[in-house]
Every structure is written in C-alpha cells, then in structure tokens.
Amino acid sequence: MRLVLATRNRKKLVELARILSGADLAVELLTLDDVEVPEVVESGATFADNAALKATATARATGLLAVADDSGLAVDALNGMPGVLSARWSGAGATDAANLRLVLEQTADVPDERRGAAFVCVAALASPDGQVETVEGRVSGSLTRVARGEGGFGYDPIFVPDGYDVTTAQMSPVDKDAISHRGRAFRGVAALLRAGGGTR
C-alpha cells in the first residue's frame, strides 16, 4: 500500500512517519516532495474541514490514498484560539517562535488556575474516489509562563499535559507520541488502514 502524507512540514513528517512506522503497517510512505499536488488553501472553519480538504485534494491529484492533518492549540482563556489559526497566529510570515511568543503575551495576566489548554489534531484519510474518514486526537493540559525544552515544534515548549510536570518539548519522542494529539489521531488512522479504510 502506498500512502501520501500531505504536508511539507519536515518536523511533522518525521513525527508522522515515526508514529505510523510503529503501527505495524505494510505501507510505503510518500510525501508532497514525491508527488505533484496543487497548493490547498486551508479555508475550513474546523480542524476536520482543513484536514479533509488537504487529504482529498492530494488523493485526487495522485490517485493514491492520502492522509492529512490539521492541528493546533486551543487555549481556554482565549476562547479556544488560536485553534485552526495556530500555524499563522502571529500574522503573515508567522514562525513557531513568533506564534508561541504571542500566546504567552496574550495570556501573561491569566492566573495559573485558568491556564488550561488542549492540543487538538484531526487526521483525514482520503481515497482517490473522494471517500474521506476523520479521526480526532486531543490531549488536555496547561500553559507554562516561559518556554521549556528543545524537542518537538510549534507550541510544545509551553504545553504541559495533564498528569505531567514537563512540557511536550521536554519529552522524548517516544513518550510524546504515546500521549500526543497527533499520536492518538494517527494511531486511529492506522486502525482505519488495517481495517481497509479508504479502500472500499
């Protein structure tokens, strides 16, 4: 089975390949660097909308099964934002560092007991005929006041999962995958693939 991972984010590709390779699937993983796919505008109102847009466009363009995700940070004190805008929260030309810094600035006056947040990921598995299935992964936690850790990417350095005293950027890749929103969503995709999802 050939499967296209519909992202150009190199750090995310490494993480997704690691999660799927641990799922005991007989799949050959391709990326957007291996195929020709038009750029997809992430115009959806939800994580599921954007994931489905990317996966469906990739599957149709390549004639292969495709999986895409949309994920982000939902901060309680910001009414669930940045949400689907997580990757571009600080505006045009946004970087991980700028996005993270802005969230810390926006929550600087929020007391510890109200610093709840969640990482959310929706992964979509699409086939060339337009069939699409989605799986959501979510992990709840809280925001730190300063960045901690060098691992991961995005908002990992300011997010502490419930039950832990370290950020996801301070976790080993294996430990992070075991509890992360992407780990949960993509293990769901692996279960769909094992069950024949996207191929009916």
Summarize the structure.
By secondary structure, the protein is α/β, with parallel strands linked by helices. It has five helices and six strands. The radius of gyration is 17 Å and the shape is globular.
What does this 3D model show about the protein?
This protein is an alpha/beta fold. Helices cover 30% and strands 22% of the residues. Strands 2-1-3-4-5-6 form a 6-stranded mixed sheet. 40% of the residues are buried.
Itemize the secondary structure elements and their pairings.
Elements: E1 2-5, H1 10-21, E2 28-31, H2 47-62, E3 65-75, H3 96-106, E4 116-126, E5 132-143, E6 159-161, H4 173-179, H5 181-194
Parallel strand pairs: 1-2, 1-3
Antiparallel strand pairs: 3-4, 4-5, 5-6
Helix pairs in contact: 4-5
